[in-house]
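note to self — DONT lose this again. spent like an hour looking for the file last time. sequence + predicted structure for the chain T wanted, 293 res
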Amino acid sequence: MPALTLTPMVLTRAEWQARELTHSERADALTADHRVRAQRGEKHPIEDFLFTYYPFKPRLLRRWHPGAGVVLTDAAGDDRADWRWYRGTRDGIEVDAAAFLEAKGASVGFIEKLLSRTAARVSQFGCFGLHEWAMVYKQDDIRHAVPLRLGQTGTDEVVESHHIGCSHFDAFRFFTPDAAPRNRLQPTRESSPELEQPGCLHAGMDVYKWAVKLGPLVPGEVLLDAFVLARDIRWLDMRASPYDMAPWGAEPVAIETPDGKAEYVRQQRAFAGRSNALRARVVEAIRVARAAV
């Protein structure tokens, strides 16, 4: 890929404050229900997962970054001037891409490679979300305090009647000891760049994680879009799971049936397209940061 030639974007105080306000209002709306539940000590087994599996607080989502290569004018007296990974310029302040890349270059390189290679692969649509079923196979102590829709015996029979091909390490590592040998792949953390593919729901959710880890290099709008994608995928993940999620308004996608499989694949294809579009935006943010140095 040819090197990017960057002309810095300059935003007036009115322009960047308007974007910052729009971002914070959107973030507050996206996290409002979670924050109310947290105050009440309540849990939602679908949506609150995004704040436990990914240990990122709502306040992180609320913080807007313009991304690298953007100068914010008239910002010297703003709190942002004291934020980590920002620096002053002749015209204002901007993300200090050079310092971030120097400190976290290995991590940035891994993320760039993982997202680029994942997006370039042909999507696979034959897993049918069986990773969630494999996590409770022959397991009396299930991961979530939610009843199994088909009971333990029925759940085990679904696992035993299918071929499992999970390519995502962070899903595979939760397989029960009896389920792990049934997976035709044995993914590891190190093999992720060679195995992950766009059809994987968990790989799509993880675009949010990688966007967070890139911090101020990723524009806030991209971060929130990645969060929304992860939330939407999580709903399908649990609707297609062995759990009875109907009490939370999540009617099952019964992947043990032909109609359920077809519905799962239909939604899976749409998520593959959305996740690849976001991967491209995150990788572009990395390229812009490199060009800004």
